[in-house]
Amino acid sequence: MANTIWQDLEHVTFTQRFVDAKGVRTRVLETGERGMPVLFLLPGQTGHLEAYARNVGPLGEHFHTFAIDPIGCGFSDKPETPYLIADYVEHLINVMDVEGIEKAHLSGESNGGWTALRLATNHPDRADKLVLNTCGGYNWDENLFKRIRELTLPAVMNGNREEVRARLEWLMEDKTKVTEELVDIRMRIYGMPEFRANVERMLDVQVPEIRKDIRITDDELRHTRHEALVLWTVHDPTAPTTVADKMAELLPHSKKVILEGAGHWPQWEIVDAFNRVHIDFLQDRL
User: Fold this and answer.
1) What angle in degrees, to the nearest 10, is found between the helix axes of 180-190 and 142-158?
2) Region 47-61: what's the mean pLDDT?
3) Contacts of 198-201 spanning 24+ positions with Cβ under 8 A
4) Percentage above 90 pLDDT, the chain
5) pLDDT score of 3
6) Residues 6 or more apart from 184 whose CB is under 8 A from it?
7) Is the pLDDT of residue 1 over 90?
8) What is the pTM of this model?
9) Mean pLDDT over all residues of the chain?
10) In contact, 95 and 20? CB cutoff 8 Å
11) If 38 and its partner were Cys, which of 69, 104, 202, 283 is the partner (CB 3.0–4.6 Å)?
């Protein structure tokens, strides 16, 4: 039987709190100690910081680690805003500012990786190393964009447990890794009236006519000066490993790791491998 999230955290010294990021009440989970290198963990679209419950303890032994609910996501505020990548970047910078953090390693999954990369290209002095975990924003697949909307909208708007479960199972190679607790958390988030009011805006990044103007370009990758780890999985449902190959080829200071045994959430499915590769890369041992 899988651990509960509380069991994952029971030996971890952590704080969970809310910070005011320029008017956006933002949920933050923090581990590690001040003085350590800073690491932010960024979940994907409509995600929440529980995605990193199995990582914050081991990573907090080496880094001053923050997992956050991005603007509109999890239990952070959900204002009426466009919810394009620029909005997530601005929110992350505001969180860093309120925490007094000038520069940090950024590890983002899916849209979180897109946010990390865009922050690094637009605000290069605020980012250190990047981990692009099954990163969104680069691969162009209109069938995928449609599929994400088809899975997400009913799960949010209908309040049906099985539709919420299906949305989560799509992320995993091993569908049994979707626990009842994880479904419960999504049900609570998706059931918020303010989440339902904004979900169409959140999904605008999956609309081709909008995405074409904000996608990650080859030129952006070529001019990224940061060290980057392109972290992918064999069974990622959003893009084949050839996308990781291309990103790593274009990024001038990159390494690439392809992991077995996971889908879009390696941080949840293959915890030890995910944690180990982070520590090795961020500590220059990869």
Assistant:
1) 80
2) 98
3) 198/72, 198/78, 198/80, 198/81, 198/83, 199/46, 199/152, 199/153, 199/156, 199/157, 200/153, 201/72, 201/80, 201/81, 201/82, 201/83
4) 99
5) 86
6) none
7) no
8) 0.98
9) 97
10) no
11) 104
Q: Which tens digit of pLDDT belongs to each residue from 90-134?
A: 999 999 999 999 999 999 999 999 999 999 999 999 999 999 999
Paired tokens of 122: 């637009």
34 Cβ contact list (under 8 Å, min separation 6): 64
Q: Check residue 280 and give its pLDDT.
A: 98
Is the pLDDT score of 2 beyond 90?
A: no
Q: What's the topology of domain 5-140+216-282?
A: Rossmann fold (3.40.50)
Torsion angle, alpha carbons of 50, 75, 39, 144, to 10: 70
Distance CA 128, CA 125 (A): 8
DSSP-derived 3-state class of residue 130: strand
With H, G, I as helix, E, B as strand and everything else as coil, classify residue 42: strand
Radius of gyration from C-alpha coordinates of the chain: 17
Distance CA 107, CA 83 (A): 20
The one-letter amino acid at 182? L
Distance CA 278, CA 286 (A): 9
Count CA atoms within 13 Å of residue 28 on its CB side. 23
Kind and range of the H or E run holding 190? helix 180-190
Domain extents for the chain? 5-140+216-282
Quick one: DSSP state of residue 253? T
Tokens of 249: 């080829």
No. of helices (H) and no. of strands (E), the chain: 13, 8
Closest residue by Cα to residue 32 from 87, 104, 133: 104
SS3 state of residue 11: coil
Sort residue 201 into left (φ over 0), alpha (ψ -120 to 50) or beta: alpha
CA–CA dist 67, 53 (Å, integer): 9
